[in-house]
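Changelog-linked ticket: pyridoxal-5'-phosphate example.
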Amino acid sequence: MLNLEEKAKKQFNKSLKDASEQEIYKLLLDLVEEKSAAMPTNESKRKMYYVSSEFLIGKLLSNNLLNLGIYDEVKEELAKHGKSIEEVEEAEQEPSLGNGGLGRLAACFLDSTATLGLNGDGVGLNYHFGLFRQVFENNQQNYRPDAWLAEPTWLNKTDTSFTVPFGKFTLESKLYEIEVLGYQQKTKNKLRLFDLESVSGDIIKEDSIHFDKENIKENLTLFLYPDDSDRQGYLLRIYQQYFMVSNAAQLAIQEAVERGSNIHDLAEYVIIQINDTHPAFIIPELIRLLVYKHDISFDESVEIVKNVVAFTNHTILAEALEKWPIDYIQEVAPEIAAIIQRLDALIKEEYPHNPAVHVIDGHQTVHMAHIAIHFGFSVNGVSALHTEILKETELKNFYEIYPNKFNNKTNGITFRRWLMASNPMLTEFIDQKIGTNWHQDADLTKLLDEANDEQSIQELQEIKQSNKVRLANHLERTKDVSINPNSIIDIHIKRIHEYKRQQMLALYIIYKYKAIKDGHIPETPITIIYGGKAAPAYTIAQDIIHLILTLSELIANDPDVSPHLQVEFIENYNVGEAEYLIPAADISEQISLASKEASGTGNMKFMLNGALTVATYDGANVEIAELVGEENIYTFGKSSDEIVRLYEEDAYDAEGLYYNEKIKHLVDFIISDELKAIGNQENLHRLHHDIISKDYFMALIDLEEFINLKEEVYEDYENQEDWTRKALVNIAKAGFFSSDRTIEQYNDDIWKLEN
Ligand SMILES: *Cc1c(COP(=O)(O)O)cnc(C)c1O
C-alpha cells in the first residue's frame, strides 16, 4: 500500500478524489523522490560521461514509477479514488530538450546505462525553453517558446559551479540534476544540466523565439538551437557549445580527482562519449585544463585526451557536418582557438599531402568531426549500413589512417518506455505468453510460438484496436482532433526534412485523393498521420508542412473523399505524442532516401508495437528487414549504392522523371486551382518548382514504386489474420533493438566500465 489517500490528506488537506491533477502530480513526484533516495549508485573507478546537446527525455512520471516498480499500484490506487493516471500525466510539462532521434537516443541510453548498473551520467545544458513549441496557423508552422521549468519539477539545484573563461568575460555556471532511475532499482545515475543564474526569459520578445542574441549573459541557455542564420546567432551557438563542454570537462576532472586520479592516469577514470560533434570542443578544452590547471605538458595532454574521448557520428548529410570559422572561435574562446591551431599543426605535419583530413581547411574553417576523429580513440556509426558508408565514402580518408578506431553500434530504444509504459496492453499480452524476463533481457523470440495460435492472433488484433481507440480519445481530449478508430492508421512522424521524404507520401496522398474522386473507394478507410517540426530557417521544409496541411483541409472538406481518407498533421510532435501514436499504428512509414538516414529509431518503436513497416533500404531498416524476413516488411526503392553513385556522377534528373505521365499530374496538383484556393501561392509554387527542377533528395525517383507498394499494403491489410501474424513476427524479432543491447556493446567495446 502506498497510502496515497493518506498522503493527500496530509499534504493538501483533502481527499484524493477532490485533489487536482496538478496536486496529484506533485504528490507522486515526492513519492518517487522518497523511494529513489534508497537506491544505490555505482561508485566504480571508471565513469562514463555522455555529453550531448540534446536529451529528449519525455515526461518522467510514468517512467520513474515503472522503473521503481510501483506504476501498477499507483494506477490502481488512483483509480479507486476516481482518478486516471493518464490525466495526471497530462499535468506534467514535457521538457523539449531535444530535436529528434539523436536526443531521444541519449535519453534511451541514460535509462539503459542505469538499468545495466553502469556508472554513467548524461551532461548537457538546461535550456529554459528547449526547442520551440510548434503551432499551426493558416496552415503554416509557427513558433512559441516552450516553457517547462515551472514547479513542481524533477530538476534539483546543486551547489556545484565552475568558471568558464570566454574571451570577453568569464561566467559562473550552476549545475542542476535530474535523477535517472534504473529499472528494478538497479542503479541511480544522473542527467546533469548546466545553466547560468543570469539567464532570463524576460529578454524574449512577447511569446516568440526572438531575443537579443548578443546578450550572452541573459540568453545563453534560453533555447536549444537558436536561429543561426546570422553572425550573432552563429556566435551564440559556439558560446553554448563551449559553455557545455567546459563544464562537462571540469566536472569529469573534478570527480576523477575525487576518486583518486592523479590526472596523468585520467583515462583510467574517465570516458567521455560525445553524441555527434556538438560537444567536440571538449577535446581542446580538456587539453587546456590539463596544460594550464594541472601543469601537464601539451604533448602528454594530447595523449591523455586521445584515450578519453569517443565520438558517435550521426549523419552523413554534408550540410550537417559542423564547421566553424576559426576567427569566430577566436572571438568566443581564444585559448581554445589557439589549441585547435596547435592540433591542426600536428596533423598538417603528419599528413601534409592529405588536406581532406586537416583540422583547419584552406578557408580557415575548423572541421569539428576531424578534431573528434584524430583526437579521440573511437568513431562509431549508428547502424550497420551507416558505418559502412562512413568507412567507404564519407570518412574514407580517415578510415584508411585509423581502421581500428571505426566501429558500429546500431541504435536501440528502451523497451521500458516504448513498450511497458506506452503500451500496457501489449506488455500484458507478452508477459502472459512468455513471462517477464524480457523486461531486462529483451529476447522476445519465444512469441513466435504464438504465430499459429488463432486465439493469440485475435488478442493481438484486439489490442491494436484498443490502442486506436485510446489514440482517438487522446487526440479528441487534448488536440480537438477526431479520427476514425476503425480506419487503417498509417503514420509518418519524425523531423521534417526532405531526405525523410514527407513530400513523397504527400504525392501519394494526391494520388489516392484522385483515385477516390474517380470512384476507387478503399475497402477500409485510411487515416494518414504526420507529426514533426521543421527547423525555422529551412524553407522547403516549411513548404512541405504547408502542402500537407493544405491537402488535409482540402480532403476534410470534400464529402466524396473524407469518409475514406483523412490526413492529420499532429501539432508539436514530441515524446508524449509518440507514446500514444506508435501503439496505435498499423503502418510505419520509413521512406527516407537510401543512404541518408543514419539509423532511425522511430522504425524500431513501431516494429516493437506491431506495426508493419514500409521501408527503403536505409539505416536500421536494413537490419529490420534481415531480422523479420522480406515477407514481413514492405521494402522498396533504389539501393544506397545506386543513390551514392547518382550523387557522385551528378546524374539525377528530376525533370526527366517529372515528365513521366504517371507522375506529372501528381506533382502539378501542388499548384492546382483547388489547392491554391486554400493554400498559399508562394509556398506551393516554390515547392513545385523545387521538385521539378532540383528535388535534391529525390522524392520522384522512388515514387512510382512507392505508390504501387502502398496499394499492395492496403490490400494486404484486409486479410487481418495474415497481417497480424506478420505484426507478431515483427514484435518477436524486435529484441535486437533494445538499447540495453546497444549499451552493452558500447560498454564491451568502448567504455569498459565495471558493473
Ligand atoms: C524516436 C523519436 C524520434 C526519432 O524518429 P526517427 O523516425 O528515427 O527520425 C524523433 N522524435 C521523437 C519525439 C521520438 O520519440
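Closing comment: Example verified and attached. The longest helix spans residues 231-258. The CA atoms of residues 271 and 308 lie 5 Å apart.
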